[in-house]
Specification:
The protein is α/β, with parallel strands linked by helices. It has two domains: 256 residues, Metallo-dependent phosphatases (Purple Acid Phosphatase, chain A, domain 2, 4-Layer Sandwich); 54 residues. The chain contains six helices and 16 strands. The strands form four sheets. It has a six-stranded mixed β-sheet with strand order 4-3-2-1-15-16, with helices on one face. It has a six-stranded mixed β-sheet with strand order 5-8-9-12-14-13, with no helix packed on it. The longest helix has 19 residues. The structure holds manganese (II) ion. Manganese (II) ion (MN) binds next to loops.
């Protein structure tokens, strides 16, 4: 009997300032949660940790936030593999990676980002580490791309029995249709045994679909939007047990509440419809300012980005005006 334990967390969105409507210090709360997550990993004795992306809320957070992140991740004392989330790079351009906070963590060896340009998006976890033997487990990462939901074929994974495959996707993988581009989990043609995903901050726990694939999204560690619902941030522990006689691989997937997370740290008076939109536009404009894309290319992309974020023609018009203004 051999056993491997993996920890999964996603969408931390670490930042220095508190999102509008939060009643606490977001920064203080987020790092408190990150230390609490480290305790979960230690208590469960996980062998590896996986991040689903959006570790930071922007590609270039203040150095003090980066410093504190390095400090907490090192205190976990675990090997960490990470996907690239939609907030982790500039203008959805992978070539911007080397000037991002996540890029610095990767370069410094604090964590390992998979699927960088010219590099593999797959890793086979060590079968033997220290004195312990593990089952064969492959991790396959599908980083965020601007077109991810439009090309579900790129997420298809062929059968590679008898190994156990875990696919990590930063994109809108959902259980029920939503009014923006998405991938319906039951329609995804994957032979992964387990699909871990981030990006949809509400999460939907653990669901097994008809073709036998288990999907899991524990929801974001950081709560940026006041959805009006109380949700306790969670992480996931995946236990993979291999029976030496039958060679069966058994997976156990547990959702664990992060101890000490506040109940619902939002001001009730905040307009629930406007608040998340304001934050998205602010982030979008930040990317517009910092991106290297020519304005003409960006203008072509705006209607698509606006559609992806669920905005109408007024937002597109405003964005066009801002870009025209920026050029003069
Ligand atoms: Mn996110």
């Amino acid at each position: 009997m051999t056993e491997m334990k993996l920890g999964f967390f996603t969408d931390v969105h670490a930042r220095a300032t508190s999102p509008e409507g939060r009643t606490d210090s977001f920064r203080e709360s987020i790092f408190k949660k990150m230390y609490a997550i480290g305790e979960i990993w230690k208590q469960s004795n996980v062998d590896y940790v996986i991040c689903g992306g959006d570790l930071f809320d922007s590609p270039e957070p203040p150095n003090s936030v980066l410093y504190e992140m390095i400090d907490v991740l090192k205190s976990w004392n675990k090997e960490i593999y990470s996907a690239i989330g939609s907030h982790d790079y500039f203008g959805y351009q992978l070539k911007s990676f080397d000037r991002t906070a996540l890029g610095i963590l990767h370069c410094a060896g604090v964590l390992r980002v998979m699927g960088l340009e010219g590099e593999s998006n797959e890793v086979r976890l060590d079968v033997k580490k220290r004195d312990k033997m593990y089952p064969h487990v492959d991790l396959v990462f599908n980083n965020h791309t601007y077109w991810l939901e439009q090309n579900p074929k790129e997420l298809e994974l062929p059968d590679r029995f008898p190994e156990l495959v875990i696919q990590v996707i930063h994109g809108s993988v959902v259980m029920k249709p939503v009014p923006f581009p998405h991938i319906l989990a039951p329609t995804l043609n994957t032979h992964a045994n387990l699909v871990l995903s981030g990006h949809i901050h509400q999460g939907w726990g653990v669901k097994k679909v008809a073709n036998g694939v288990t999907f899991c999204n524990p929801g974001s560690v950081g709560r940026l939007e006041n959805t009006g619902e109380q949700r306790t941030p969670q992480v996931v522990i995946v236990t993979i047990i291999k029976d030496d006689d039958s060679h069966d691989l058994i997976q156990k997937i547990e959702l664990i509440d992060i101890p000490g997370a506040l109940g619902h740290p939002f001001n009730d008076k905040v307009d629930k419809k406007i608040n998340p939109q304001v934050q998205d536009v602010a982030r979008f404009l930040q990317m517009v300012q910092k991106t290297n894309i020519e304005a003409v290319d960006l203008k072509q992309q705006i209607p698509l980005i606006a559609e992806k974020l669920g905005y109408g023609s007024e937002v597109i018009e405003t964005a066009f005006k801002l870009i025209e203004g920026a050029k003069t």
